[in-house]
UniProtKB/TrEMBL annotation:
Methyltransferase required for the conversion of 2-polyprenyl-6-methoxy-1,4-benzoquinol (DDMQH2) to 2-polyprenyl-3-methyl-6-methoxy-1,4-benzoquinol (DMQH2). It is a peripheral membrane protein. The keyword Transferase applies. Transmembrane segments: none annotated. This is 2-methoxy-6-polyprenyl-1,4-benzoquinol methylase, mitochondrial. GO terms for cellular component: extrinsic component of mitochondrial inner membrane. It is an enzyme of class 2 (transferase). GO terms for biological process: isoprenoid biosynthetic process; methylation. The gene is PLESTB003363. InterPro entries: FAD/NAD-bd_sf (IPR036188), Geranylgeranyl_Rdtase_fam (IPR011777), Isoprenoid_synthase_dom_sf (IPR008949), Polyprenyl_synt (IPR000092), Polyprenyl_synt_CS (IPR033749), SAM-dependent_MTases_sf (IPR029063), UbiE/COQ5_MeTrFase (IPR004033). It catalyses: a 2-methoxy-6-(all-trans-polyprenyl)benzene-1,4-diol + S-adenosyl-L-methionine = a 5-methoxy-2-methyl-3-(all-trans-polyprenyl)benzene-1,4-diol + S-adenosyl-L-homocysteine + H(+).
């Protein structure tokens, strides 16, 4: 049958697909992501059309098909491509022959396609990729109906006119109708042994591209095993290479703070006493003859207890948990370096296989993957081979420890010794560093010391002697002596405070100690290692669903930002501390002050261990808690922070709103969870929630309903951003790749719809009036966008049209902030009207000011480069005024338009256009109009009594139009 249609096969496919075939094939080639140096098997290649992109890119491609007629046409067209006749159920290739296997529009033609999927797995190298493109099931019911009618009725008739064998295309229609849908095919691919299967719909689901993703984790410690667990739990095929064999002994990490325990709980890792875990109540800080007990705080995000377990048991337990989730953990694999493709991207690693004694066996392995996670510790052979070395400007700590049989084994506090005295010195001189005693619960205690800075001042120290001198000062009944020591005294370096960067290079992420994530405050590394592994896994899973290799790399490139957000400021402060407390004199002075004020020590412990309370609601409204230090007020609202009453209330409210936003976008569906969080985690000014809170304060008092409505408004705004970016084809938003850039237009639009749905669900709990506010606002938003898309009607003044658009697109949502806040606080109608009017006018003023700043400001003012709107042809206020003046005969305006209407592709041309517009009086007129709207917003507040909240709204309106240009 295929022999018959071969001569006109490509032409007929173009006709029957209405020209979509070639676009679908381009998506497949992007998903394969092959580069020179790799070998690709293209099954059901037919005449070789699908193989051409690989050959043209210098990739070694084998085009395989069962039809000799197809192959003959292909060989005649492209003699440079290797064409092979092959039965997909009995492939004539050796095991592990190809870096990628792909098949387009051919899997459903194979009688035993399950066997074919297994054969594809056999010939793919470890870490190899699978990409399948096949007809599927449209996701929308109307499209399914139209598509089915086309398949069964129209397609055979069209084929009869264009093809030599119309019956072949009747078979095509029937085979498509009988083929599994997207989810069922994904299940079949998984059943064949592939893992990490993701799919992407094309043309509404008429075609779907399925891709199997593989990850490689180098290092099986807490970071590596945690990453292996999370990747496997999300369906990603993952291999973990560990140099040693479990159980393995490590120096540091027996003491697990609540932050580490949280990660264990998130993973579902059991940690009861029957498994060797000893629970503790908090930290006991000891100095000289005094001690202060600091219980672990009661927090919403962290458990109120810590744990102690030897790394010998903990690491084995964690690796076993990763295995149980589906991760492949290979022990005795010593990584020697990374593998790169022709573009320099990391695509795998080489490893020596070791024997039980840790010696090389002579056997080497190559492991390939879509993404590599380096979690091989402080020395990180992986990072070094990739050219990533430790930074000399970052501290390196040192820790030494020993186990002793001791009655202190049952301690229910983790002890931190802030002063170390020399037991061999009659004067009891102070030793450098800090110490610890952890009760292990098995008859032994872990006793050790750390120095958080290895500058030259400490580089000559004999750390083991310091430990021995310190333990000599301990009471004899504790038995911290040579007779009761069990095992060796071991030491290790502590890579602190981002001492190796960057944390991403193409194809690879750095985790845990390999990334230098040990805290310079306290030397803790386990919690940060596990947390960074979870973040890395989230980025890998999101990248797996991205649209092509370039977009996948963009997603991976967001990982360092996530790490900086979590630890950047904390590590900066800690680096200073590390340099100070290594000095005994400085430590003595600090301890003398701190031990005298237990409340201060409790605060210090929370800072050092990164544990902070969440704000809690009170009868007077939400109170600020320590978590509010993460909240930043937008420009113009500094007045609030300086007020002793309103400041804490507002900051606490914003912290609670942030939590609610995070909760609202969570989803049991992982793809929806990742795409919904994408822009939320990128940040934002949160102006709308703040205005809602202030409206509530003015209207009668902030309450839970006001806070919920503030989250509703921000979610609505967030959803519009997903849609706006599709309509504008914007590549970046808030400094990260837009959702449509990463996952495509359909996913971005559907994510926006999903967030709209979440906002609607939340507002439905706030009563009928709140529902009406949301519905009216949504209608105005859509109409504003619709009118902007269509443009001014015939005879309408473009400037008038533009202000109408802004009123709908921008003003309506800011007005809703005032409306929600005032209504839900119980305000009288006259106060509600004031807040709605203020919101509408200040929202329009804000957008008009942004228009002007586009041609007069700098990046840090507007958040974008000058001239961005000009280059994109956006009809902003200065441009509209300029065109009006040119139409009225203004010669300078005409000359400015000559620059504006030229090709603005080059930076030089854009700079000339920006200068021409900014120097024309149209720009000053635009400022005048923007300030007029701000003045009207301020005037609308006149009926309200003079309060801090009112003055803050006035200051904000003023700041909106007085940003420096």
């Amino acid at each position: 049958m295929f022999d018959d249609v071969a001569p006109r096969y490509d032409l007929v496919n173009d006709i029957l697909s209405l020209g979509r075939t070639r676009g679908w094939r381009r998506v497949v080639a992007e998903a394969v992501g092959a580069v020179p140096g790799e070998k690709v098997l293209d099954l059901a290649a037919g005449t070789g059309t699908s193989s051409e992109p690989y050959a043209d890119a210098g990739v070694d491609v084998v085009a395989a098909d069962l039809s000799l007629g197809m192959l003959e046409v292909g060989r005649a067209r492209r003699p440079d491509i290797e064409f092979v006749q092959a039965d997909a159920t009995r492939l004539p290739f050796a095991d592990a022959s190809f870096d990628a296997v792909t098949i387009s529009f051919g899997l459903r033609n194979i009688q035993d396609y399950r066997r074919a999927l297994a054969e594809m797995l056999r010939v793919a190298r470890p870490g190899g990729r699978l990409v399948i493109c096949e007809f599927s099931t449209p996701t929308a019911a109307p499209l399914r109906t139209v598509y089915t009618e086309y398949l069964m009725k129209a397609l055979p008739g069209i084929a009869a006119r264009a093809a030599s064998n119309p019956e072949a295309y009747r078979y095509l229609a029937e085979s498509i109708a009988a083929w599994p849908d997207q989810e069922d095919l994904a299940a079949e691919i998984l059943a064949a042994g592939w893992t990490g299967v993701q799919y992407r719909n094309l043309t509404g689901g008429i075609v779907a591209v399925h891709r199997a993703v593989k990850a490689l984790v180098l290092g099986g410690g807490p970071a590596g095993a945690t990453a292996g667990y999370w990747l496997a739990a999300h369906g990603i095929e993952v291999t973990v290479l560990e140099k040693t064999a479990f159980p393995r002994e490590k120096v540091c990490g027996d003491g697990l703070t609540p932050r580490a325990v949280r990660e264990m709980r998130l993973m579902g890792l059991p940690h009861g006493p029957e498994l060797g875990y000893a629970r503790n109540r908090g930290l006991r800080l000891v100095a000289r003859e005094r001690s202060v007990e600091v219980p672990w705080p009661e927090l919403s995000d962290f458990p109120p207890y810590g744990l102690v377990r030897t790394r010998l048991g903990f690491d084995e337990h964690l690796a076993g948990h990763a295995r149980a989730a589906g991760a492949r953990v290979l022990e005795r694999r010593a990584v020697t370096g990374v593998l790169r493709d022709g573009s320099g991207r990391v695509v795998g690693a080489r490893a020596n296989v070791l024997d039980a004694a840790g010696r090389r066996t002579g056997e080497t392995e190559e492991h390939r993957a879509d993404v590599v996670l380096a979690a091989d510790g402080n020395s990180s052979r992986t990072a070094v081979s990739a050219g990533l070395h430790k930074r000399d400007d970052r501290p390196m700590g040192v820790a030494v420890r020993a186990y002793f049989e001791s009655p202190r084994s049952d301690l229910d506090w983790m002890e931190g010794w802030l002063e170390l005295t020399d037991g061999t010195d009659p004067q009891r001189a102070l030793l450098p560093g800090y110490g610890w005693v952890f009760g292990v619960g098995d008859g032994t205690a872990n006793v050790g010391l750390g120095i958080l800075d290895t500058s030259p001042a400490f580089g000559a120290l004999d750390y083991r002697k310091v430990l021995a001198d310190w333990t000599a000062s301990m009471p004899a009944e504790w038995t911290f002596d040579e007779e009761h020591r069990r095992g060796r005294v071991l030491g290790a370096a502590l890579p602190m405070a981002f001492n190796r960067t960057p944390h991403h290079v193409p194809g690879m992420l750095l985790l845990g100690d390999a990334a230098g994530l040990v805290s310079p405050f306290n030397g803790e590394g386990i919690s940060n290692a596990m947390e960074s592994a979870r973040y890395a896994a989230e980025h890998v899973v999101a990248a797996a669903a991205a649209n092509g290799p370039a977009q996948r790399e963009l997603v991976l490139a967001g990982y360092p930002d996530r790490v900086r957000q979590e630890w950047g400021a904390h590590f900066t402060q800690g680096r200073v501390l590390a340099q100070l407390i290594g000095s005994p004199a400085v430590m003595k002075a600090a301890v003398r002050t701190g031990m005298a004020v237990p409340a201060l020590m409790r605060f210090v412990v929370r800072v050092m261990t990164e544990l902070s309370d969440r704000p809690a609601a009170t009868a007077d409204g939400p109170a600020a808690g320590p978590g509010t230090d993460q909240v930043r007020l937008p420009a113009g609202f500094d007045l609030i922070a300086s007020d002793d009453r309103l400041g804490p209330v507002v900051l606490g409210s914003l912290a609670r709103i942030e939590e609610r936003l995070d909760e609202a976008v969570r989803s049991a569906d992982h793809l929806a969870d990742v795409t919904s969080r994408h822009l939320l985690q990128a940040g934002g000014k949160r102006v709308r929630p703040l205005l809602t809170v202030l409206a509530g304060e003015i209207g009668g008092g902030i309450n839970d309903a006001v806070l919920e409505s503030a989250a509703v408004v921000e979610l609505t705004h967030l959803a519009t951003l997903y849609h706006d970016d599709v309509m504008d084809s914007a590549p970046l938003r808030r400094g990260v790749a837009t959702a449509q850039t990463v996952w495509g237009n359909s996913v971005a639009i559907l994510t926006g719809d999903l967030i709209f749905a979440r906002a609607s669900s939340m507002v439905s709990e706030l009563g009928q009036r709140a529902l009406k506010i949301q519905a009216d606002t949504f209608e105005r938003l859509v109409l504003g966008q619709l009118h902007e898309t269509v443009g001014p009607r015939e005879g309408q003044d473009p400037l008038e049209h533009y202000l109408d658009v802004l009123s709908g697109k921008t003003g309506s949502l800011i007005a809703a902030c005032g409306h929600f806040g005032a209504v839900l606080a119980g305000a009288d109608q006259d106060v509600v009207d004031v807040m709605v009017e203020y919101g509408e006018k200040v929202g329009i003023a804000f957008q008009l000011a942004d228009d002007v700043i586009d041609v007069t400001g700098e990046d840090e003012v507007s958040g974008k480069s000058p001239g961005t709107d000009l280059r994109e042809g956006v009809p902003t206020l200065p441009v509209l005024i300029l065109r009006r003046m040119a139409g009225e005969g203004d010669a300078d305006a005409v000359r400015a338009l000559e620059h504006l209407d030229s090709d603005l592709t080059s930076d030089e041309a854009l700079a000339r256009a920006v200068t021409a517009v900014s120097e024309h009086r149209a720009t000053e007129e635009a400022w005048r109009i923007a300030r007029q709207w701000a003045d009207e917003a301020i005037a609308s507040l006149e009926p309200l009594p003079d309060t801090v909240a009112k003055r803050a709204l006035v200051a904000f309106a003023h700041a909106v139009v007085h940003r420096e240009a």
